[in-house]
Amino acid sequence: MSMPHSFRKPSARERARQDWIDERRREARMVVADVAHHSDHIVRLACNVLVQHGETPREREDARILLVVLDAKSPTRSAYQRSDRGSTP
Prior knowledge:
By secondary structure, this protein is mostly helical. The protein is built from 4 helices and no strands.
């Protein structure tokens, strides 16, 4: 029988993975904080990181809302993506 996950020490691999995610989250927050100086593509990447790995539900929701705003800013891009998935705009 193994120890419950909450009581065992994280392995070096788990610590490295968490450190990597923390660094990506920090970079994503910097991009979102300075959105006017970054391309829409970079902002989308940052938002996707925060939607998946944000620390709080509020942070994840704010990133998702920013993605919606970016889609509204370029409707042809979102229509193109929908047609690639087989649905219509």
